[in-house]
# Entry
Amino acid sequence: MSDAKHIAIAGATGAVGEELLNCLAQRKFPIAKLTLLASARSAGKTLPFGGEEIEVQELTMNSFEGVDIALFSAGGGISKQFAPAAVAAGAVVVDNSSAFRMDEGVPLVVPEVNGEDAQNHDGIIANPNCTTIITLMGLNPLHRAFGGVTKIIASSYQAVSGSGASGILELDAQLSAIAHGEPIPDRQVYLHQIANNVIPHVDVFTENGYTKEEMKMFHEGRKILHVPDLKASVTCVRVPVHRSHAVAVTAVFENEPDVDQARKAISAAPGVEVRDEPFADPPIYPTPLDTTNGDDCLVGRIRRDLVLDNALTFWVVGDQVRKGAALNAVQIAELL
Ligand code: NAP
# Structure
């Protein structure tokens, strides 16, 4: 293979697909050919890339001939159906869905945390859940600094673009109706009105009362950090924000943590920055607007936890379409 690759994007017209195109262009990924794939609905549309308009093709079992790297962002069902065909055609799949994340032999990779795992694949590498990636970007430097993390308690504040392009449309339609004194339009995405509201329900409920999204942090955190007995209790909440997830995290470590050392450890880590000056005027901490369209995750509100021993509490924010999905996938492709 030459350095320049034939890249395919399955789900090119979606929220993550659009950002994959941005990341590939901005990072000047060496591309010999770009194949854009989506449903039959989008076949024939064009998307701009590198000054050209590229036609979108319908995703089929025969879409992957000659493809070196296939970036999948069309949902778990599509990944399950088509990723094996891409691998059989000789491509390496980087999958944004949850279809293969916990499978034996499928590395689950955040390049800044466990990039070395990407080399041990059988054709499929999984991108972790977006909330998990953002949490671990803040947590991993502390995990390294304080002898290993043993427990996490976290609450997420998740943007509507996490539900795809349709989440943004639903929030905006409701906000517009409210602004014009009109009835709220029929809901398609969320069970409850999301405008002027927060909904403590992301993904489906599992038997233990936690949602699948909440259990992803539990299972995926163990796999990525290589801490098989890590415990995590997570509450995921959808908030009326367009973009960037925020997570309030309390983490317990093997060793006694120190706030100044924590700030230094995070500052020294790649892909994450500290914005934490509670006594500045005005106080400094990151918000979702600060990370939107940005690469780095931002951490603030770092403090000793007042309830648990050996624990820190902090706030981490990141653009979940970018670092939580597209950027992370392109970084994995770069590792290949
Ligand atoms: P989205 O905006 O709804 O886009 C879905 C994409 O999948 C579109 O390109 C769509 O094509 C394509 N698609 C749907 N049905 C298809 C079919 N039968 N055959 C081929 N393509 C089909 O969703 P998204 O937010 O980008 O999410 C995509 C994946 O990334 C999901 O697995 C999601 O869980 C994951 N993810 C999303 C985020 C996020 O923040 N949004 C973060 C991390 C991971 P058409 O336009 O033709 O329908």
